[in-house]
């Protein structure tokens, strides 16, 4: 195995503890359109995706609407406002030990990229609430609207690699709490892909994407990276 030079971490559910707030918000705006879906439906079909795509895929998989686009358009318009309100009102934190873990990565000269299915504005708001800063806690942040194609396409990882001057995807580790994170890492050719059980999906759901490791929380990467 090649030495890991760069890690790419998903945000909500992986590095950021927001108790599935984003997916609860997705569920609310969909059900406000007259449906009766469950959080499990949203997590199964929407986890890790750019949020308009998540809403579209959940509607496609879980309803019999012949044309989901108008419904998805209405739900997504309400989603952006609802999520901003929720993030203003709710307590958001990083998972326990995350700041110290980031410090250990930086001490070992491992670059840290955060990537997310959020748009850039939402991602920056989340970063601000955590009091994280590029250059101090992490090296770069890539949001869904920074690239043409979101997960499971490799565009966000390749964009981060270009920003941080990493040419060999085999030296990159991708970790996230949904199967689509793992698919993204595999499609980018990452040397290691890791599923994390701290967020959206179950061990069974993550296993379907065949990650190299499944861990309970991100700080367990210590044993993989430093031993």
TrEMBL record:
It comes from the Bacteria. InterPro entries: HAD-like_hydrolase_sf, HAD-like_sf, HAD-SF_hydro_IA, HAD_2, HAD_sf, PGP-like_dom2, PhnX-like. One of its GO terms (molecular function) is phosphoglycolate phosphatase activity. Keywords: Hydrolase. One of its GO terms (cellular component) is cytosol. GO terms for biological process: DNA repair. It holds the Pfam family HAD_2. This is Phosphonatase-like hydrolase.
